[in-house]
Amino acid sequence: MSEPKARPRALVTGATGLLGSHLVERLRGRGDHVRALVRDSSDTTFLDGLGVESARGDLLDVAAVERALDGVDVVYHCAAKVGDWGSWREFQTGCVDATKTLAEAAGRAGVRRFVHVSSTSAYGHPRDRDEPIAEDHLLGDNVWPLDYYTRSKVECERMLWGLSAAGRLPLTVIRPSWIFGERDRTTIPRMIREFRWGRVSLVGKGDNPLSAVYAGAVADAMLLAADSPKALGEAYNVTSHSAITQRRFLDMLADAVGVPRPTFRYPYWYAFYGGFALELRERLLRNPRPPRVTRYGAWLLGRRLSYATEKARRELGWTPALTYEEAIARTVRWFLDDEPARLPHRRTPTLVAVRRALLGA
Question: What CA–CA distances, in Å, run from 191 to 134, 187, 199, 263, 295?
């Protein structure tokens, strides 16, 4: 009688974050051995409860990365500096340099697959269009000045595809959009607070397509991609459960929180250029905190742009397990069940009434 096949050994970066925590939950649920590369300061309580092995170290420390890769079959790279505020040095260090160190070490270690979590931001900021953007769209289309987050996503992918083309990295790229879900300690707490204060407004008419996806659905796509021979050397958009508008998504969120649906709206141009003015002011003041409104936040909500997910559905068999209503309800319930413990420790940017922010209220 043959012995059962050993489950893969996975290394996950960003495992204490939103997407990474959903990924390790699924990996452990199917019996994979999971090792998480975490900083010394990271709270690993959730990971410990799942039986995840923690490897302490920094992504810029080559020796620590090589130790974490020992015996690993698949790397899931979720860690990155997120958000649309900070210096280029911060993004280069936290995204580009960290990814390069990990990818080159993974190539030397001979891993079977390197699954990199990129973003639809790697496409840049394409002009509004009716046709969804597919994976063959060029990278870095119309990158804005001072938009270091987008620039870092573009440079990360170009570097990784270079390693892949040279035969040095068995790469698969996942490009999600705005991710939400349980253990989101930034966006959802912030939005719930703004809803309660009656400060959530529509950007434009609200009838534009919105790209938002549940973290668990992205994690499912990552597992499918890692296990599929067809996914080697490919990229996949994982951006939405189904077609949904900005207004419908915000209405669902308001219903789940139990507050009135938003009715006030700002013209898209007002939100966008108002955010840009605030960004310039805060950069001149060298403020380490972002303004309450940014171009990127206005663009995420108000753009008339969508991303095709047919490739992931066709090649990977990916189908979101939850509807938007179910995913939003689950996310809000998680936060409300222990709200004091899940409030963010510091203010982060939010798209609220632009006029109030411009007036300094």
Answer: 29, 6, 9, 15, 17
Q: Whole-angstrom Cα distance, residue 261 to residue 198? A: 9
pLDDT, tens only, 4-59: 456 669 999 999 999 999 999 999 999 999 999 999 888 999 999 999 999 999 99
Six token digits for residue 52: 């995840």
Phi, psi at 137, each rounded to 5°: -65, 145
Question: Across the strands, what pairs with 213?
Answer: 179
What are the respective helix, strand and coil percentages of the chain, to the nearest 5? 45, 15, 40
Residue pair 349/294 in contact by the 8 Å Cβ criterion: yes
What stretches of 120-165 adopt beta strand conformation (E)? none
Tell me if 262 sits within 8 A of 250, measured CB to CB.
Answer: yes
Q: What is the distance, to the nearest Å, from the Cα of residue 340 to the centroid of all Cα atoms in its chain?
A: 24
According to DSSP, the residues that pair with 33 across neighbouring strands are: 9
Q: What percent of the chain has pLDDT over 90?
A: 80
| Cβ–Cβ under 8 Å, residues 279 and 265 | no
Q: Is the dihedral of CA 162, 165, 166, 172 positive or negative?
A: positive
> What are the residues whose beta carbons fall under 8 Å from the beta carbon of 133, sequence distance 6 or more?
120, 123, 126, 237, 305, 306, 307, 308
Q: Tell me the sheet residues that pair with 35.
A: 11, 53
Q: Which residues contact 341 (CB under 8 A, 6 or more apart)?
A: none
> What is the residue type of 351?
L
pLDDT level of residue 100 (50, 70, 90 thresholds): very high
Burial of 334 (0-12, 13-18, 19+ CB in 10 A): middle
Instruction: Record the pTM.
Output: 0.91
Q: What is the reported pLDDT for 338?
A: 81
Gap between the Cα atoms of 214 and 23, Å rounded:
12
Q: Answer yes or no: is pLDDT of 356 > 80.
A: no
- Picking from 25, 3, 35, the residue whose alpha carbon sits closest to that of residue 218 is 25
Give me the phi and psi of 105, to 5 degrees please. -65, -40
d(CA 81, CA 95): 6
Run of H or E including 252: helix 246-257
